[in-house]
Amino acid sequence: MRERLVTLDNVESAAARLEGVANRTPVVTSSTLNKLVGAEVFLKAECFQRTGSFKFRGAYNAVSRLQNAARLRGVTAYSSGNHAQAVALSAALHDVRAVILMPEDSPSLKLAATRGYGAEVVYFDRYSDKPRHERGLELAEERGIALIPPFDHWDVIAGQGTTALELFQDAGHLDSLLVCVGGGGLISGCATVAKAQSGAVQVIGVEPEAGNDAVQSMREGRIVTIPTPRTIADGQQTTSVGERTFAVMKERVDDVVTVSDAEIVAAMRFAFERLHIVLEPSGASALAAVLSRKVDLIGQRVGVTLSGGNIGVERFVELMGEYPAGT
Question: What is the reported pTM?
Answer without folding.
Answer: 0.94
